[in-house]
Amino acid sequence: MTLNIDKIRDIYENRKSKPLEINRFYSVLLPLMKIDGQLHILFEVRSMNIKQPGEVSFPGGTVEVEEDFMEAAIRETHEEIGVDADKIEIIGELDYITNTSNFILYPFVGLLNTDYDSLSINRAEVEEIFTVPLDFFLENEPETYNISYRPDFKPGFPFERIPNGRNYKWRKMNYPVLFYQYGDYVIWGMTAKMTYNFIKRLGKSK
Questions:
Q1: Residue 1's pLDDT band (cuts 50, 70, 90)
Q2: Whose CA is closest to 34, among 89, 116, 90, 118?
Q3: pLDDT tens digit string along 127-175?
Q4: CB 146 within 8 Å of CB 177
Q5: Helical H runs in 58-188?
Q6: How far are the Cα atoms of 60, 76, 150, 192 from residue 81, in angstroms, in the given order?
Q7: What is the Cα–Cα distance from 64 to 61, expressed in whole angstroms?
Q8: Is-above-0.90 flag for pTM?
Q9: Alpha helices, DSSP H only, in the chain?
Q10: pLDDT average, residue stretch 3-8
Q11: For the purposes of burial, counting CB atoms within 10 Å of the CB of 184, is it exposed (0-12), middle (13-18) or buried (19 or more)?
């Protein structure tokens, strides 16, 4: 097939860019609640019957076909803790996350305009829920530990086709892992990273 410049123009007309090699899309909600006049962040403990069992997370999951990121965050929150969509006030977007696992994660921050006691946990996905006063995160920095990843080459990789072959200077990926300890709960990984991203933005506004 021969392509001319007019055909190439047609292909790219009105095209929007997307993340290269990303094939999984997720969305979560960082939920705020008012409890006794004080703002709290609500967290879930994942069911022991799903992936990453027992880990602390936010409501969220896979973005479905014909659904945008915000719609997915609202739907997943409703499905996991029983908050109706009209009780979820989306306040804004947090910075999104990408990594080498070929996925992108869009977090939103929102206010749950309902009482804590009215929440209905989906036990198939959520073991329990708990809240942490917002002031805790404003007053406590997370612990940060850095880990590094190096390329893992499978047999047959054609080193002979690249400059310097096996001595090529591959980039090492450094990845900070954050931890918050709140009582018996460990908030870590991407959940801690999204929380810290949110808190840093609040700190800058003081």
A1: low
A2: 116
A3: 999 999 999 999 999 999 999 888 889 999 999 999 999 999 988 888 8
A4: yes
A5: 69-81, 134-139
A6: 10, 8, 39, 20
A7: 9
A8: no
A9: 5-12, 69-81, 134-139, 189-204
A10: 88
A11: exposed
